[in-house]
Amino acid sequence: MTTPTTAEIIGILGGMGPAATADFYAKLVATTPGSSDQDHLRTVIWSDPTIPDRTAALLGDGPDPTPWLLDGSRVLREAGATVIAIPCNTAHAFVPRIADHVGLPIIHMIGEVARHLTTLSPRIHTAGLLATTGTVRAGLYQEWLDRFGIRLVLPGTVSQNHEVMTAIHAVKAGIRDDRTTALLSRAAQRLTERGAQAVIAGCTEIPLGLPGDAVGVPLIDPALVLAQALVRRARTDGGVEQGR
């Protein structure tokens, strides 16, 4: 029997949505260096699409998803996970409510993105954000980017409602067509026209509908950044700084 290269077992708290969860796992596999099955990370995936809509909850239009997130985290822990990754940006608004009850470290995707932006050259002073209205209203990226002195540019109300959210709902419905890409690329262009040197695809559905070459500046994929952080943690003794 082959001995695993790391004791880490990645727990993926997914289902928000299912396609984004599958895409995240594919990115985790692609990011992991290795030449055989045994070089890859042991992973447990809990994909629960019954978790209530996170944006609806933040806007006061739906139930609180915290109990589902907590239950899913416990499922992962009981299955042997040693660390949890949540490939949903909006769900990070609820991380403070579950972090002290999970018993495992949660790698904070948004915190990892903020740190990643500081490594880019030329230095990023202003970043644009394409995300759900819930993520925007919760100020998740605003809080983290402010810590690193990065200004955040957000879509206007019309662009947010009729371009970004329309495209996100389309991807969740399995529609990834030219219209979806056009909506997102127009929204991204509006951000670059206002000074964004990079655009954060701050909803894990967005990279499924917006290829990087459709944006004139670097398109930052938080799911990919999270996957890279997990690989670094698993491959080093020091691990990755936790954010809550």
Automatic annotation (TrEMBL):
Q: Which UniProt keywords apply?
A: Isomerase
Q: Name one Pfam family in it.
A: Asp_Glu_race
* Record has Isomerase as a keyword: yes
Entry superkingdom? Bacteria
**Which family is annotated?**
Belongs to the aspartate/glutamate racemases family.
Name of the featured protein = Aspartate racemase
Q: State the organism's lineage.
A: Bacteria, Bacillati, Actinomycetota, Actinomycetes, Kitasatosporales
